[in-house]
Design brief:
The chain is α+β, with helices and mostly antiparallel strands. The protein has one domain: Gcn5-related N-acetyltransferase (GNAT) (Aminopeptidase), CATH 3.40.630. About 30% of the residues lie in helices and about 35% in strands. It has a 7-stranded mixed beta sheet, with helices on both faces. α1 crosses α2. The longest helix is centred in the middle third of the chain and has 15 residues. It binds coenzyme A.
Length: about 150
C-alpha cells in the first residue's frame, strides 16, 4: 500500500481525532475518548506554538500520526512526543516504526538533538520505544520516561 508522510495540519484534526479514539479506546489503554474530547485535546495541542506533528497517510486517509512539542533550552532543541498512534487495523505491520523513523529524521533535519517520551511501564509501547533506541531516564511505579539522544546514537 502506498503511504505518505505529511506535516500534521489544522485540516487533519478530525481524521487524527478518529485514529486517536480508535487507538486509545482499544487495548491495552481502554480509555474513554469521544470524538469531541479527542478533537478538543488534539486541537489545543496543535494550536501551541511549539507544536510539531507528522501524519501517515494511506489510500484511505490518515492511518496514524506522531506529535508533540519542540522546545529550545540552553541552545539545545528537544522534541517531546506527546502522542503516537496507528489505527488498530494497521498496528503490528511496521507502520508505527516507519512513522517514528521518518519523524526522527525530519526532527534531526530541523536541528533537534533529543527525543523524549513518557508511557506506561510494561506496555507494548514501552517495548516499541526500546526497540527504537530510546533509553529509560526515569520511572515511577507505573510510568516510564524515555529519551533518545543524537550524540549517543550508533
Ligand atoms: C504503539 C504503536 C504506535 C506501534 O506501532 P505499530 O505499527 O503497531 O508497531 P510496529 O509494527 O512498527 O512495531 C511492532 C512492535 O511494536 C510493539 N507494539 C506496540 N503496540 C503494538 C500493537 N498494538 N501491535 C503490535 N505490536 C505493537 C511491539 O513491541 C512490536 O514488536 P514485535 O514486532 O517484536 O512484536 C501502535 O501499536 C499504537 O498506536 N498502539 C496504540 C497506541 C499507543 O500505544 N501509542 C503509544 C502510547 S505512548
Amino acid at each position: 500500500m502506498e503511504m505518505r508522510f505529511e506535516p500534521m495540519r489544522a485540516g487533519d484534526l478530525v481524521a487524527c481525532a478518529e485514529v486517536f479514539v480508535e487507538a486509545f479506546n482499544g487495548a491495552p489503554w481502554n480509555e474513554s475518548w469521544t470524538l469531541d474530547s479527542a478533537r478538543e485535546f488534539l486541537g489545543k495541542l496543535m494550536a501551541e506554538p511549539e507544536f510539531w506533528g507528522l501524519c501517515l497517510r494511506g489510500e484511505q486517509g490518515i492511518i496514524g500520526f506522531l506529535c508533540g512539542r519542540i522546545t529550545v533550552k540552553g541552545g539545545e532543541k528537544s522534541f517531546f512526543c506527546v502522542e503516537l498512534c496507528i489505527s488498530p487495523d494497521f498496528q503490528g505491520q511496521k507502520y508505527g516504526s516507519q512513522l517514528f523513523e521518518a519523524a526522527r529524521q525530519l526532527l534531526l533535519d530541523e536541528g533537534v538533538s533529543s527525543i523524549g517520551i513518557g508511557t506506561d511501564k510494561n506496555t507494548p509501547a514501552e517495548k516499541f520505544y526500546l526497540r527504537h533506541g530510546l533509553k529509560e531516564t526515569r520511572a515511577t511505579e507505573t510510568d516510564v520516561y524515555m529519551e533518545w539522544r543524537k550524540e549517543n546514537a550508533s
